[in-house]
Amino acid sequence: MKSTLLRASMLLGASLFAVPALAQDTDAFYVKTTVAPFCSQIAANSDPMNLGSLTGATGQLVAEFAAGDTSRELSSSFYCNAPSRVTIVAEPLETVNSTTDTSSFTSRVDYTAALAWSNVQGQVSSTDTDGTLIEAAQANIGTLTLTLSNPTVANNLRPVAGDYSGLVTVSIALAQ
Q1: Which of 19, 29, 54, 94 is 20 to 30 A (C-alpha) from 6?
Q2: DSSP code per residue over 134-162
Q3: Which residues contact 160 (CB under 8 A, 6 or more apart)?
């Protein structure tokens, strides 16, 4: 009887320290937020690009721009986090000086403006008054660089003396 009583008290003591297992429950839920489409800002140096002399020793147009300032980094890490459209418009190099001998001389020099932005590339000639549209089909990031090249004149005319200037406009907008 002592043995049974001792066993019963041990079982009773052990049951006092045993905690019943609590039932566990798991639940999952979704969270959501949004990221707005965005393009960073172009931070280009606004100083004019010096292309050098347009003519060589004989007064004829050079085949390539003479100066080393034919390429300009517009931004070191430009990005759009969504598809975008890049438009490039290049206006010809022109001088205010004119000539009456339009069969030999011109006051206009055309050129090519090329844009490189990571895997997005395109170019436009200053003869194209509407410019060119480049589609960036997905988010893109990288160095945005503009390069000018290939000076040309119509009918192999000689440029008239004077200061020439032109304008390149690069526009980047979200494609929505």
Answers
A1: 19
A2: EEE-S-EEEEEEEEEEEEE-GGGPEEPSS
A3: 95, 97, 98, 99, 105, 106, 107
The CA distance from 94 to 162, in Å, is 9
Residues contacting 165, CB < 8 A, separation 6+ = 48, 93, 94, 95
Q: Please say whether the beta carbons of 124 and 113 come within 8 A.
A: yes
Provide the 8-state DSSP code for 81. S
Tokens of 143: 């160095």
What digits encode the pLDDT tens for the residues 35-52? 999 999 988 888 999 999
User: Which tokens in the block code for residue 55?
Assistant: 């003519």
pTM, whole model, 2 decimals? 0.80
Strands 105-106 and 93-94: unpaired
Per-domain boundaries in the chain? 39-174
Q: What is the tens place of the pLDDT at every residue in 71-108?
A: 999 999 999 999 999 999 999 999 999 999 999 999 99
For residues 173 and 126, the answer to whether their CB atoms sit within 8 Å is no
